[in-house]
Amino acid sequence: MSVAIVDYGSGNLHSAAKAFERASRDIGSAEPIVVTSDPDRVARADRVVLPGVGAFADCRQGLDAIAGMIDALENVVRKKGRPFFGICVGMQLMAERGREYRVTPGLGWIAGEVDRIAPSDPGLKIPHMGWNTLNMLKPHPLLADIPLGPDGLHAYFVHSFELKPSQRGDLVAQADYGGPLTAIVGRDNMIGTQFHPEKSQRLGLKLIANFLKWKL
Amino acid sequence: MFKVRVIPCLDVKDGRVVKGVNFVNLRDAGDPVEAAIAYDAAGADELTFLDITASHENRDTIYDVVQRTAEACFMPLTVGGGVRTVDDIRKLLTCGADKVSINTAAVARRSFVKEAAEKFGDQCIVVAIDAKQVSQAGEKAAWEIFTHGGRHPTGIDAVGYAKEVVALGAGEILLTSMDRDGTRKGFDIALTRAVADSVSVPVIASGGVGNLDHLVAGIRDGHATAVLAASIFHFGEHSVREAKVYMAKAGLPMRLDP
Predict the structure, then answer these.
(1) What is d(CA B65, CA B12) in angstroms, rounded to the nearest whole number?
(2) Under a CB-based contact definition with an 8 Å cutoff, are residues B244 and B39 in contact?
(3) For residues B6 and B42, is the Cβ–Cβ distance under 8 A?
């Protein structure tokens, strides 16, 4: 039993690992959290976390740079159907393609692409940087016991691009920033958050705890 | 919806908080990690460490502080002070910083901002601008960039510079008025507004906060999206939560999670 956090040089790796360790302790989970760049360990994991910050193309390049990592992810997430959690650019990589700087292929697990956010209010600044509440579009086990909606808890966002799923059913939650923004996508055994759960205090730790308990 | 951020800033020297933080009963008022934990609990929206370590040998102390903070606090952390190379940025981010703030190095070499943004993404590159008013009464308002804690004039116009670094990839501007810093007279609203209205990215107002109305004015009149303050929080005059409740009552959108 293990939770693999994929190490491909992403800047938020340390923070993500610490948050998963903390949430794991909080719920008394016995599954060890393993930070690894070894495709075999990823392929054998019971849960997989893909962190990510920075530019889409740069992150894709980072994954490609580890021989066998994309295959390992395909194997463990798509074939074996183990619970998967993508964070920020790790979530965006689930899309078919990204349009940051240039068109770059994603993993293609969620139909849709990653494009620049365009708030309807020109007074709103980009990047969307700061705290926002979440509006749930469909119930999901990861959102259990988390107060949502305008009076609910906040999540921490830092991004200029968002994943726009082409199938409405893949949208789990949105945030409002001059119009709706994709906050959480989910399909089968996969979940991805645009915001940073590792930086979202209570909401983040709870979400991570729910992921660690997620039974498919 | 968009929420205003309140950001306490801690000056850190050789791994210790300068002057200490006295707002709660910390076991060690000089430990940045303990202060960070207390601010996290008080509802701070982000935290900023400004490393003012002078000697080269002690530069590594900040990495240890950032790493220990990231282990204990699950909130956004920005680190500035002495960030000069892509490698400095990489180390800080790897230790757990979410954003780094670049000051003198960007003034000296603008292309550094572009290199950094392309490497790590513009969302984590903050450019810190220290500005002083140089126009006289009756003239069109103008502010100039100063470096080295406000001692070195550069001749560079602050508003023009802000636009330039944003075009190069800065994802946020941390704007400090050197005229107001330490005076407790409030932000330089005209400066804040001139910069905030000229750039597309978030602007953090800094320098001069003496009371909670100043925080409100920075957002409402200065058009900043976040406010940074040090002493009003460090010495227990106001808690971060008190400040946020006050700002919410003034009509600003605040995050008031329990």
Answers:
(1) 9
(2) no
(3) no
Which residue among the candidates A100, A113, A162, A198 is catalytic per the annotation? A198
Q: Which residue has the tokens 């409030």?
A: B186
So what's the ipTM on this one? 0.92
Q: Which of B26, B11, B12, B15 is nearest to B236 (CA)?
A: B26
Smallest Cβ–Cβ distance between A19 and the set B74, B118, B203 belongs to: B74
Asked if B225 lies within 8 A of A125 by C-beta distance, the reply is yes
Subunit contact B121:A58, Cβ cutoff 8 A = yes
Cβ–Cβ < 8 Å for B249, B216: no
**How does pLDDT run across B116-128, given as a tens digit for each residue?**
998 888 899 999 9
Whether pLDDT at B232 is above 70: yes
Out of A126, A176, A205, the one facing B74 most closely (by C-beta) is A205
Give the model's confidence band at A3: pLDDT under 50 very low, under 70 low, under 90 confident, else very high: very high
Contact A14, A44 (CB under 8 A): no
| pTM assigned to the model | 0.94
pLDDT of the residue at B20: 67
Residues 128-157 of B with CB under 8 A from A: none
Q: Any residues with CB less than 8 A from the CB of A97 and at least 6 apart, and which?
A: A103, A104, A105, A106, A113, A114
Instruction: Count residue pairs from A and B with Cβ separation < 8 A.
Output: 111
Q: Are B175 and B193 in contact (CB under 8 A)?
A: no
Question: Shortest CB distance from B120 goes to which of A11, A125, A202?
Answer: A11
